[in-house]
Amino acid sequence: MSEVPPELARLRSSIDNIDAALVHLLAERFKCTQRVGELKAEMGMPPADPAREERQVARLRALADESGLDPEFAEKFINFVIAEVIHHHERIAGT
Ligand SMILES: C=C(O[C@@H]1C=C(C(=O)O)C=C[C@H]1O)C(=O)O
């Protein structure tokens, strides 16, 4: 099938915009966490903060639930991002 139906083309165009926004948002988040990693290393704080993570997961699960997104998915997603941030912080701290 060579012709893409207009609705499918429109939806894919929006998906492309959303994916671009997600990349930009993640890039901004990692800029912030880079600086957090530097500050924590300077202050001798550990790379991970499990209590903060627990609050974030609970908050994001509630937001997901309210907005019709699967809370399990939201939790997996934020844990995936946080795990990467912690690797960066370990590298910054030289641990
Ligand atoms: C960014 C921080 O470092 C780690 C990464 C977190 C994150 O990516 O949200 C949260 C807690 C920490 O385990 C922080 O302590 O705030």
UniProtKB/TrEMBL annotation:
Keywords: Isomerase. Gene3D superfamilies: Chorismate mutase (1.20.59.10). InterPro entries: Chorismate_II_sf, Chorismate_mutase-related, CM_bact, CM_dom_sf, CM_II_prokaryot. Transmembrane segments: none annotated. One of its GO terms (molecular function) is chorismate mutase activity. Pfam families: CM_2. It comes from the Bacteria. GO terms for biological process: chorismate metabolic process; salicylic acid biosynthetic process. The keyword Isomerase applies. SUPFAM superfamilies: Chorismate mutase II (SSF48600). Residues 2-93 form the Chorismate mutase domain. SMART domains: CM_2 (SM00830). PANTHER family: CHORISMATE MUTASE (PTHR38041). This is Chorismate mutase. It comes from Knoellia remsis.
